[in-house]
Amino acid sequence: MATVDHAMQSGHAADEPMGEEGYRRRDFLSIAAVSFAGVGAAGVVVPLVSQMAPSADVLAQSSTEVDLSAIAPGQAIKSQFRKQPLFVRNLTPEEIAEADKVPVSSLRDPQTLAQRTQEGKKNWLITLGVCTHLGCVPLGAGEGENRGPFGGYFCPCHGSAYDTAGRIRQGPAPKNLQVPPYKFTSPTTVVVG
């Protein structure tokens, strides 16, 4: 009763709206509460998101360094990049000429050798060793392995044949062997990834 009497004495009815000052205080409290909740939510979300980032050992595996000095012309080696086989091939001048004379328009996945290698390093072909048909590992990177009718790589699973530029020439594979991102850090070292 005292509250109602007080409101009556001050000239305001109990159900009349407050003055402008009352709204400002309520708005301030609402904004402050939402801001406080936002800061609290950020305090919870940031650690959750950061714990999903890859750890240092995973980041270290995201690139592969390959020493090219022991790869003779005409030879290919197998390495590994992100748990997938990696083929590094040192093409001979004859293999480069053979790849260059193939009409690009005759290819299923048209690419020149120059598009698949880096400028000034046309002899170094670096591809993932995964057939683009169903993911088998083609032969041709190891010593004495079947390189298929085009002298590149041959997939024993379903008969896809790639040329010396890693381009699909025969069989069910729809695309060329994938060229991963790489850069030369020295004349004899390449970093893939």
Structure description:
- The chain has 193 residues and is α+β, with helices and mostly antiparallel strands.
- 30% of the residues lie in helices and 21% in strands.
- The protein is built from five helices and nine strands, in the order αααβββααββββββ.
- The strands form three sheets. It has a three-stranded antiparallel β-sheet with strand order 1-9-8, with no helix packed on it. Strands 2-3-4 form a three-stranded antiparallel β-sheet, with no helix packed on it. A three-stranded antiparallel β-sheet has the order 5-6-7, with no helix packed on it.
- It is elongated and about 90 Å long.
- The chain starts with a helix and ends with a strand.
Instruction: Please state the average pLDDT score.
Output: 84
| Assembly status | single chain
- Report the β-strand fraction as a percent range: 15-25%
List low-pLDDT spans: 1-8, 10-14
Largest sheet: 3 strands, antiparallel
Q: Radius of gyration, rounded? A: 33 Å
Amount of helix:
25-40%
Q: What is the count of β-strands?
A: 9
Side by side, the strands of the main sheet go: 1-9-8
- Broad structural category: alpha+beta
Overall body shape:
elongated
Number of separate helices: 5
**Termini separation:** 78 Å
Report the order of strands and helices: HHHEEEHHEEEEEE
